[in-house]
Amino acid sequence: MAKKRYGVKIRAPHALVMTFLFKEGSLLEKLKVIAEATHLHARNLSMFVVLYKTLTTLLRKAEQKPQQYHSFIAAFIGGYYVFGKNNRINEQINLYLLSRILLGLSRLAVQRGIVPTPKYDTFPWFGAMVWGVVLWLFEYHKDVLQPSLQNSMTYLYHDSNVWHSIMDFIVYNRI
């Protein structure tokens, strides 16, 4: 139950904001979208945690002790069956995790001596690369970006070219 509660705490605020910013429809339709997204996120997270913990327990009991690869195998199987279904919620979760994985692997490479410790702060270069690539993709290859990212960037970088009053920036610029 705690896993579902966590999923609701994470997804509901995000779904609320994104739905009211970018979705058209009645209040009832918007609330339905929010409830569906929240339910799917919470259900998938709960299913994954139960599957992961069950598989790691079985692997540990089968080998009499925990092994590092147990977590990978259990998560691989759970990821395939739960987060392998192609839908907008799983896509967002998987992309979120991918960014954290890449950062973690780069830190691990430094810790293990595979990559030398940088002599200066590399974060400004990281930020520059991320924003340079995403805006280039948005301006010239928009169709390859995730629809919610397209909506956010269209609002920020294109819709903001037309405005009628300061309320367009405070409330919502609907052009």
In short:
The protein is mainly alpha-helical and 175 residues long. 74% of the residues lie in helices and 0% in strands.
Brief descriptors of the model:
single chain, about 180 residues, mainly alpha, 2 domains, 7 helices, flat
List the helices and strands and how they pair.
Elements: H1 2-22, H2 27-63, H3 68-81, H4 88-111, H5 123-140, H6 147-158, H7 167-170
Helix pairs in contact: 1-2, 2-3
Could you please describe the fold and organization of this structure?
This is Peroxisomal membrane protein 4-like isoform X2. Pfam families: Tim17 (PF02466). InterPro entries: Pmp4. It comes from Branchiostoma belcheri. By secondary structure, this protein is an all-alpha fold. The protein folds into 2 domains: 1-91, no CATH class; 120-174, no CATH class. The protein has helices at residues 2-22, 27-63, 68-81, 88-111, 123-140, 147-158, 167-170. Helix 1 packs antiparallel against helix 2 (27-63) and helix 2 packs antiparallel against helix 3 (68-81). The protein is flat and about 70 Å long. It starts with a helix and ends in a 5-residue tail after the last helix. The relative contact order is 0.07. The mean pLDDT is 85.
